[in-house]
Amino acid sequence: MEMSGKVGWGVIGACGIAKRRTIPEGIVPAANARLVAVTDVNSKGAEEVAAQFGARNCPDIQSLLRMKEVQAVYIATPNNLHKEHVAAAARRGKHILCEKPLGLTTREIQRMIATCRKKNVLFGTGFMMRFNVYHQKLREMIRDGSLGVPVMARGQMTCWYPPMEGAWRQVQALGGGGSLVDMGAHVVDVLEMMFGRTKSVMAKMANRVQTYQVEETAILLLEFESGVPGIVDVSFGIPDEASEFVLEVYGSKGAVKGKYSMAQGPGGEMRSCILGGMKGYDAQQNVQTKSGYQPWELPTRNTYQAEIEAFSEAILQGKPAPVPAEDGLWNHAVMEAAYKSARTGKAVAPKLA
Ligand SMILES: NC(=O)c1ccc[n+]([C@@H]2O[C@H](COP(=O)([O-])OP(=O)(O)OC[C@H]3O[C@@H](n4cnc5c(N)ncnc54)[C@H](O)[C@@H]3O)[C@@H](O)[C@H]2O)c1
Predict the structure, then answer these.
(1) CA angle (128 as vertex; 126, 134 as ends), nearest 5
(2) 236, 210 in Cβ contact below 8 A?
(3) How far is the C-alpha of 143 from the C-alpha of 198, rounded, in Å?
């Protein structure tokens, strides 16, 4: 450990989301972290990132992992490489925060977890949306009964993602799936924060405009442990301008509706309509004149910074990873259940081998 009490971080795959968000918004400003080194097969790009943030550019992964000052690594490479990169880091005794999905299959992720346990290193999943203050507030409101009996929920992420030469997300063997594993994984995780683990899932998938081999659009009908039914809908075929990343939670005492919270920015927009108690039946159902949604005004917190600070804190305190790899494993079991449902047309209960 450094004298300063800051965890030294190395970044594997520095030129994508790492450069856009996790380094500048997470590792650099985190109170208990320090960026030590980066590496990327795009060596010119890595050189630029290293220069910009005052880190060493390592020519390859092994030279980064040999650095004693690197205590933790953030892995943000394409999904098919996570397995190899997690194993390499674990063998060198580094703590690991890996982007989602942790691997291409639950079996692969189970082996990665076993390796990390054997090497006694922390292994966490990059579900940074857990740290969004609106999501945390919403979970609190569900737990303390402010929404009454939770009735139903919906989460949506969409964007425009056309076929592109060399895009690993559009190739099944590299991404492990399309919009569902890419965006739906986050949405399922956020809804599970509120309602518990998924008991069963039914899924429909389609490619309406994008022609690649992975799914462009997926709609999931879920039942959570708590009995709450939920919908998750994701698509790579909707213009960015028309995408609002909707989150809606309904209960017997009211509802919370939000936009943009399940995104890379720190906050979002949330509003709620909460009644004082359980409502009596109103035969007129005059909803138009009764709408009472109030916008939330909560101080927001950058989710990447919160994620890095929480993981660094766990290392410094000798505690478990704040979003453990076991949660990433479970999430992937839900993804696999959804793909099986889309193939068979039946509801599927997620399970681990
Ligand atoms: N949580 C989030 O907000 C979020 C957002 C985007 C992506 N992601 C996840 O992050 C991961 C990366 O996604 P991305 O959008 O940044 O992809 P990307 O393709 O933009 O970036 C990946 C980087 O890894 C590098 N790379 C490829 N092979 C490598 C190797 N063998 N060794 C070292 N570097 C290598 C590439 O050159 C590239 O710079 C994915 O798992 C994705 O699901 C998470």
Answers:
(1) 160
(2) yes
(3) 17
pLDDT at 2: 45
Residues 6+ apart with CB under 8 A from 68: none
Ligand 1 contact, 178 CB (< 6 A)? no
What is the whole-number distance in angstroms between the Cα of residue 78 and the centre of ligand 1? 5
pLDDT at 292: 86
Residue recorded with tokens 């007129």: 284
Strand ranges for 113-181 from DSSP E: 123-125, 150-158
Nearest-atom number in ligand 1 for the CA of 126 is 1
Per-residue CA distances from 67 to 45, 223, 343 (Å): 21, 46, 46
Segments in the chain below pLDDT 70: 1-4, 277-291
For 277, the token pair is 């108690």
For ligand 1, pick from 40, 96, 182 the residue to mutate: most ligand atoms within 8 Å of CB.
Answer: 40
Atom index in ligand 1 nearest the CA of residue 264 equals: 3
The torsion defined by the Cα of 323, 327, 331 and 332, in degrees rounded to 10, comes to 110
Instruction: Report all structural domains of the chain as residue ranges with CATH numbers, in order of start.
Output: 7-127+304-323 (3.40.50.720), 129-300+333-344 (3.30.360.10)
Instruction: Give the integer Cα–Cα distance in Å for 170 and 105.
Output: 17
Q: CA torsion angle for 144, 149, 152, 156 (degrees, to 10)?
A: -10
Instruction: Determine if the peptide bond prior to 101 is cis (ω within 30°).
Output: yes
> Would you give the DSSP letter of residue 71?
-
**Cα dihedral across residues 274, 280, 284, 285: positive or negative:** positive
Q: How far apart are CA 298 and CA 132, in angstroms?
A: 11
Q: Which residues pair with 96 in a beta bridge?
A: 73, 123
- Report the predicted TM-score, pTM, of the whole model to 2 decimal places: 0.95
Q: Mapping DSSP to helix (H, G, I), strand (E, B) and coil, where does residue 35 land?
A: strand
- Distance separating alpha carbons of residues 333 and 188, to the nearest angstrom: 11
Structure confidence at residue 267 (pLDDT): 78
Q: Which residue has the tokens 């569902």?
A: 180
